[in-house]
Fold this protein.
Amino acid sequence: MAVRHRLIRKSPEDVWEVLSDVERYGDWVVGTSRVEPSEGQWPQLGATLRYHIKVGPLTLDNQTVVRRSEPTSVLELEADSGCLGTARIAIELRPWGEHTLLILDEHPLRGAGGALHNGLLDAVQQVRHRVMLARLARLCEETENPSLLTAQPRPRGD
């Protein structure tokens, strides 16, 4: 199980604003490209996103669905990587003074990912989460009001 936390120097409302913006999803989630809404209104319960993940020469078509959404405090997702299985990704936002303590908990749920889960994969996941949370913190902190940010396209390696 990969659990990581990060103090973000913005309020939970500001962090939620970034998490809620489908246009910014690929800017903080490591490896994603061509993110597009599929069903529902992100991040409401049942909403889905489709995107690609590049792993070396492979490109995987993935989908993530919102399983729990409590604005400004909890976002739980199920990422479906097809033959690799699914993973539960829980993001908790805790007020920490005037800032936010973000806790990210990800673990395999179904399929091959669960069967092959081991300490080495957890270590890789920790590195990925460190990068992901640094990107998210940067997006949240780089402006006075994150809701005024406009998504800036970045090279995705497609």
Notes: The longest strand covers residues 58-70. The chain has a mean pLDDT of 84.
